[in-house]
Amino acid sequence: MGVAGHRSRERASTALSLGFVTAFLSVIVILPIAALVWASTADGSAGFWDAVSSPEAVAALKLTLAVSAVVALINAVLGTITAWVLVRDDFPGKSLVNAVIDLPFALPTIVAGLVLIALYGPRSPVGIDVYGTRVAIGLALLFVTLPFVVRTVQPVLHELDAEMEEAARSLGAGELTVFRRIVLPNILPGILSGVTLAFARAVGELGAVVIISGNLPYRTELASVFIYLRLQSGDRAGAAAVAVLLLVISFAVLLAVGGVRRLATRHERA
Amino acid sequence: MRRARRHGLRSIALGYLLIVLLGPLTMVFWRTFEHGFGRAWDAVSDPYAVHAFELTLIIAAIAVPANTVFGIVCALAIVRRRFPGKGLVNAFVDLPLALSPVVVGAALFALYGRGGWFYGWFSRHGIDILFALPSMVLATVFVSVPFVAREVVPTLREIGDDQEQAAHTLGASGWQTFWRITLPSIRWAVIYGVVLTTARCLGEYGAVAVVSGRLEGKTETATLRVQDQYENFNLPGAYAISLVLAATAVVVLVTMTLIRPSRGAEGGTGFVGGAPGSQERTA
């Protein structure tokens, strides 16, 4: 068996594996997505525009984007603090706390919704009932997005040399200056990609919010719930149009995260 | 002064976790057994609940192997082969991480529902896709596509291809090289990815809620049953099924924590890991 035989065999196996990957991705991901985009414009672009500009759809989209942005911002601050405490602080039970951070990802989202209504719903033992309010939506989204920023900032903080901070301090820099000039520039890419992912997750969440939000049109109805209810009532075109908007947001988020990452590696090389 | 600041930050972080995460979780345990162990047991052993658990397991039993094979082949293609459109493959593998499960459900509706591209063919042949097992499997496979691939890619890149080249030179076939060299060195990443995929499949709600039609005893999975029980005012039932699902989640977390040391120190357990786009953006 010569080099030529080896080459052609390798070429054949490349073709085989690429064929499998393409076929699998097409059937599972690409064809349904293509069909969705096609269905959203089935009544022409005017139909698409009518569907996404109906008052109920606009209200749902606005609420979704606003709540998700607030949730992403809270994550940026509290997630960074949590990551800092987990890396730089030491207290009994720290490893347990570190382990439960990932629980919102392992826990089914509908269970997350039920869990929240158990404590902050109509029969709340602590006397807080937020059922059917925007606060409830925010809480549910904070629950499911909790790990993103913590887990993207934690490894960076871990690798960050504490000596650099000590040096700055010994040169007379205050705590705020040390954070702003030394820590923040290093963890910023991590915060940004964590925040972007948390935002995407919040925009699309259904399970955690569907029980506790009350789903009142114009008040607590999110875009995901809107799509879900429209599909159930048979308005496929309306559902598809709003779904395509969420799809665009998802692609934008992936692009943004890729961009942040490229920026971060360039920063390191420089 | 620094001590005070440290305590301040610690209280903020722990208070945040308590309000958002730990408080609500403890409540579920309490609520489940509030009316005694018997009520909880009845709720999880009722025939519809048993069927729901079985259905969840059946779907996972199809989706997890499918995504494991795909994840390994796809990771090998991304790392070891050169081909045009690699960036596109990467983007579609990452997409489910950023996409709403409801959109996945809506997409399956658009493809297999009335007026969809495949509706005619399947209905002429009498095959039910929507409101039946096939669409539920398709939805679950879609949402759990990324996990194995994203775990295996960095490991493959790290180990390099020296050993594989050596095996080739010594006359091993591609298949032999894969089984004897490649697979053993990526096995922890594969196991890790499989655990993540399984957790995602067992907990899937949004996409399945849209396509299943949620018929009790027919197309109702465990997560759908939680909501059904809640809406029918059987709270102990909803909490009991939730507790089973939550216990599964804890098992998943413990497994991942145990596996983690063998694959190098990383921040989390891999659900976030390197965020999407971390694998291959230069190719």
Describe it:
- The complex is a heterodimer of chains A (270) and B (283).
- Chain A has 270 residues and is an all-alpha fold.
- Chain A is 80% helix and 0% strand.
- In chain A, helix 1 (3-40) packs across helix 12 and helix 7 packs across helix 9.
- The model of chain A has no long low-confidence stretch (mean pLDDT 90).
- Chain B is mainly alpha-helical and 283 residues long.
- Chain B has two domains: 1-33; 37-263, MetI-like (MetI-like fold, Orthogonal Bundle), CATH 1.10.3720.10.
- In chain B, helix 5 (101-112) packs across helix 7 (133-143) and helix 7 (133-143) packs antiparallel against helix 11 (206-212).
- The N and C termini of chain B lie far apart (50 Å).
- The model of chain B is unreliable at 264-268 and 273-283 (pLDDT under 50).
- The chains are: A mainly alpha (270), B mainly alpha (283).
- Chains A and B meet through helix 1, helix 3, helix 4, helix 5 and helix 6 of A and helix 1, helix 3, helix 4, helix 5 and helix 7 of B.
- The CATH top-level class label of the largest domain in chain A: Mainly Alpha
Name given to the CATH architecture of the largest domain in chain A: Orthogonal Bundle
Coarse morphology of chain A:
globular
The value of Rg of chain B in angstroms is: 22 Å
Could you estimate the helical fraction of the residues of chain A in percent? over 70%
The termini of chain A sit apart by 48 Å
Structural class, from secondary structure content of chain B? Answer: mainly alpha
Total domain modules of chain A? 2
CATH class of the largest domain in chain B: Mainly Alpha
How large is the count of helical segments of chain A? 12
Largest interface: A-B, 96 and 95 residues
Structural class estimated from helices and strands of chain A: mainly alpha
Termini gap of chain B: 50 Å
What is the strand tally of chain A? 0
**H/E topology pattern of chain A:** HHHHHHHHHHHH
Annotated CATH architecture of the largest domain in chain B? Orthogonal Bundle
